[in-house]
TrEMBL record:
Topology versus the membrane: Multi-pass membrane protein
Subcellular location: Membrane
One of the Pfam families matching this protein, by short name: EBP
Domain EXPERA residue range list: 1-93
The keyword Hydrolase appears for this protein: no
InterPro entries cross-referenced by the UniProt entry: EXPERA, Sigma-2_receptor-like
Main location: membrane
Transmembrane segments: 6-30, 42-61, 81-98
Stated name of the protein: DUF2781 domain-containing protein
PANTHER family assigned to the protein according to its UniProt record, in alphabetical order: SIGMA INTRACELLULAR RECEPTOR 2
Keyword check for Protease: no
GO cellular component terms listed in the entry, alphabetical order: endoplasmic reticulum; membrane
Keywords recorded for this protein, A-Z: Membrane, Transmembrane, Transmembrane helix
């Protein structure tokens, strides 16, 4: 991590500070089928997908040095490796955005 560019280090710190706690919270919420996870899931999905833009851009748009030394085939392999980290969070955000109660109506206990 010491040799990473500053923008990548900031993304890594965001992952540690935001995404790791979200995973713990989301694991509980999804297992317990809690609808309140909807908005945090949308925020997580959009944030994660957004962080992939500079990562993928650095593979394809960098000039000489760094990622610029990669061949087109190597860039394509890296893109394929990172693509699920873009697609899955976007699908999660989309599903949660389109479903006001993703786990159905919560049943309350009566008397």
């Amino acid at each position: 991590m010491g040799t990473c560019p500053a923008w990548l280090r900031s993304i890594i710190w965001c992952e540690l500070a935001l995404q790791v706690p979200f995973f713990i919270l989301a694991t509980y919420a999804f297992c317990a089928r809690k609808n309140w996870i909807r908005m945090p899931s949308i925020a997580y999905g959009v944030h994660t997908a957004t962080t992939l833009a500079p990562i993928l851009g650095s593979f394809w748009l960098s000039g000489s040095g760094g990622y610029g030394k990669l061949t087109v085939a190597e860039r394509a392999k890296l893109t394929a490796l990172y693509l699920p980290y873009l697609v899955v969070p976007l699908l999660l955000a989309l599903r949660m955005a389109l479903s006001p109660e993703p786990f159905g109506k919560n049943k309350t206990k009566k008397g």
